[in-house]
Amino acid sequence: MPHLIALLVVVVGPVLLIQHVTGLSFGLAALIAVGLVIGGIYALKERAKRQRAERRAALIAKYGSPEEADMILDAKIWTGMSAEQLLDSVGRPEEVDHAVTVKKAREIWKYGRIGQNRYRNRVTVDDGHVVGWTAKGG
């Protein structure tokens, strides 16, 4: 029942407002409301495309590779990517474990907490580059 009320407010409310302000029939007001919604959705999609294109151009300028820029935009992880590329691709980890040995500095970047020290994804970063990762479903 609450969903039905919310639907009525979201769908019928703007139509009634347009009808009240313009004096048009309910049908014409509904047509105008639908047009406004479709126009708004189109504008949002165009803005998202423009923002993605701008981010892609910036990533190509930063890393010099259209292929890597596309993988970063698609939130991909690959062996050999830099820690900075990892940040650009999937963002800051929720937690990082550090281990330093004589030969290397290892970090485990953890994403998607699902419990006490349980995460959906763990990415192993040795000396600033990804060497592997595990991902749990769900």
Would you write up a description of this structure?
The protein is α+β, with helices and mostly antiparallel strands and 138 residues long. The chain has two domains: 2-63; 75-135, Beta-lactamase Inhibitory Protein, Chain:B, domain 1, CATH 3.30.1450.10. Helix content is 54%, strand content 24%. A four-stranded antiparallel β-sheet has the order 1-2-3-4, with no helix packed on it. β1 and β2 (105-115) form a beta hairpin.
What would the keywords be for this entry?
elongated; Beta-lactamase Inhibitory Protein, Chain:B, domain 1; four-stranded antiparallel beta sheet; alpha+beta; 138 residues
In short:
The protein is an alpha+beta fold. It contains 4 helices and 4 strands; from the N terminus they run H-H-H-H-E-E-E-E.
Q: Count of DSSP helices?
A: 4
| Alpha-carbon distance between the two ends | 30 Å
| Sheet with the most strands, sense and barrel status | 4 strands, antiparallel
Shape: elongated
Order of helices and strands: HHHHEEEE
Uncertain spans: none
Strand order of the largest sheet: 1-2-3-4
Topology:
Blueprint: H1 2-22, H2 26-63, H3 66-73, H4 83-90, E1 95-100, E2 105-115, E3 118-126, E4 129-135
Antiparallel strand pairs: 1-2, 2-3, 3-4
